[in-house]
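dumping the sequnces here before i forget
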Amino acid sequence: MNIDRIAREMVDVEPSVDLEARIRERIRAAGPAPARTTAWWVWRVATPLGAMAAVAVAVVQGPAVTSQVVSSPGPQVVSSAGPQVATSSGPQGAASPVARVRTSTLPEVPASLLTSEEIAWMERRMPALDPVNALQMDRLRMDSIQPEPLAITPLTMTPVGTDGAGIERRNDR
Amino acid sequence: MIPADDALSAERALVGDRPEVRALVAAAREGDRAAFEELVSLHYRTVLRTAMAALQRREDAEDVTQDAFVLAWRKVSGFRGDSSFKTWLLTIVWRQALDRRRSRMRWWQRTSSRSAEGRADEPGNDEIDRLASLEADPERVTEARHRVKQVRALIAGLSPKLRDTLLLAASGEYGYDEIASMLGVPVGTVKWRVAEARRIIHGTLQS
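..and the predicted 3d for all of it:
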């Protein structure tokens, strides 16, 4: 007795002639398929990572902006807002380390090869979007927090008495 | 246009499917209903047999088949491709069929008793008649028909785990790995269940 053959007969049925049509009709009635959604675990992973990235950018950018404001007034501000290609070929040798970080990641393309749209796009770039190389950050400068040397002025004492006669009189008592 | 990461996922996911199926699945994931209907045409017979293995009643199996395809259409955009599309689809229909079977447990008990009695409209009876007619000796004809009905009753009387696995394996539609994926058990468990089901039926017949 072939058990497998009999078992197969139990499931080997021919579908109704209209089964496929009914399936298609049900699918059409169900409407469009839902848009692809991001799996829940992606959000659970991406949200903390995004927050950490934002904090990291803020930490890296924070001192850079401060040093830029303090040590490189004027031209440095212009360099971040103006066409990057032009500033990279300008007097960047004297620029602050922050400015070097930003301009060093940009492609060195002559401004003449860029279209006006490209230059306009680059002018609109947000500085925060530039990749940040943490290894090229400013070193901590200890001199900025060194206290000023104490200026001690010698005290001048004025003696209470000049002859010492009163002291002797008290000891005699 | 499929994003790069999704395309990579789809490529990884559809290992085991034919190239034309891969293309159809990729289009269906993007919401192409025509592509999904092509997949329906390719798979609805297999899906129906899978439902039959759990329900053993054509009407219920066809209802579950429709429900499973509608559910698959709603979920296909999230198909990640951890298995082949066929395995993913059969897993859906299998779960749907088990839900239907649980909700109709009382009906199932009635069906078991009917299968022992034999009904002219049940699948397989034509085959029984055909096998019986091949026998020249009337006594052997009667004996063969009796044995076939007896085996059917024994299969129906197996525990659900053994019966489901035996029917899925005997259908010839799936490999052991696909059955294991559908049932959520290791491949070794599938093999053991099939062997155990056969052993029980053989033992009962010999006794």
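The radius of gyration of chain A is 40 Å.
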